[in-house]
Amino acid sequence: MPSNAAPAGKALEALISALRLERLEDNLFRGPRASIGWQRVYGGQVLGQALSAACQTVDENRAVHSLHGYFLLAGDPDHDIIYDVDRIRDGGSFTTRRVKAIQHGRPIFTMSASFQKHEEGFEHQAAMPDVPPPESLPTAAELVTTLAGELPENMRAYWQREKPIEMRIVDPTRYTSREARPATQAIWMRASGSVPPDPVIHAALLAYASDFTLLDTALIRHGKMLFDRDVQLASLDHAMWFHRPFLADDWLLYVQDSPSASGARGFCRGLIFDRAGRLIASTAQEGLMRRRTTSFELK
């Protein structure tokens, strides 16, 4: 089904370019930097690039159905990342790959991914919650204008930048209230313009986007926010399951919750639905969630 998204802007074009890795050797790839203004590499960039690297070593008739990654070190946003793919297994139905992301001679991330040829089988899924459609929700620019006096300065600056992923927050009061509430949130998201009809790029874009707000969900239960300077957040691991075909430049609903936080770690889960209510992917992540006097800031 063709997308009705607008032409890609500079931010999305730069991200798509960063997800098309340069092949250095049969199993070795270079991922160009794709900084979003943070003092470390955004975890979603590494997820998307690692998945793209793995896909380049797999037969195109096998689609990714799961990935499991561990973040080992903070990435340097001023340098490219090298991805080393280990071809673990090519079976009759499934293919397994292991990817190691390297910077300055050290692994910063490792991931296992599994691919499967198409098969028919049993079908069931969770129901998509009833939420307002994305067209009825404010854009990031409208949100900043409406809530300018209530948003922290660093959050306003972030939302005012051109971004490759457009998001519509179902409940914007999450960003203005310090009230502790149930650790759940729902966000509509899509690529901010049209994306080429390459399923690898669509999968990598979804992996990229899946990391944005997931760990932030755990903070809702404590009346805290991603941009608070007294909280240190960092992704520790990230898992993702791809259930059904989708387009990253059509609206997708990301429903998230956090059933637990303990030991300075927050655990979060997500379900991603398309506009038709089809469950297209699921996520799970545990991240560092530490109280501190200062934290990293946006540049």
Q: How do the strands and helices of this protein lay out in sequence?
A:
Layout: H1 10-19, E1 22-25, E2 28-31, H2 43-55, E3 62-71, E4 81-90, E5 94-103, E6 106-117, H3 140-146, H4 153-160, E7 165-169, E8 184-191, H5 199-210, H6 216-220, E9 231-242, E10 252-262, E11 265-274, E12 279-291
Antiparallel strand pairs: 1-2, 2-4, 3-6, 3-9, 4-5, 5-6, 7-8, 8-10, 9-12, 10-11, 11-12
Helix pairs in contact: 2-5
Offer a concise description of the structure:
The chain has 299 residues and is α+β, with helices and mostly antiparallel strands. 18% of the residues lie in helices and 36% in strands.
Give a written overview of the molecule.
The chain has six helices and twelve strands. The longest helix is centred in the N-terminal third of the chain and has 13 residues, at 43-55. It is globular and about 55 Å long. It is of the alpha+beta class. The chain has helices at residues 10-19, 43-55, 140-146, 153-160, 199-210, 216-220, and strands at residues 22-25, 28-31, 62-71, 81-90, 94-103, 106-117, 165-169, 184-191, 231-242, 252-262, 265-274, 279-291. Strand 5 (94-103) and strand 6 (106-117) form a beta hairpin. Residues 295-299 have low confidence and may be disordered. It has a twelve-stranded antiparallel beta sheet with strand order 1-2-4-5-6-3-9-12-11-10-8-7. The protein has one domain (10-118, 136-291): Acyl-CoA thioesterase, double hotdog domain (Porin).
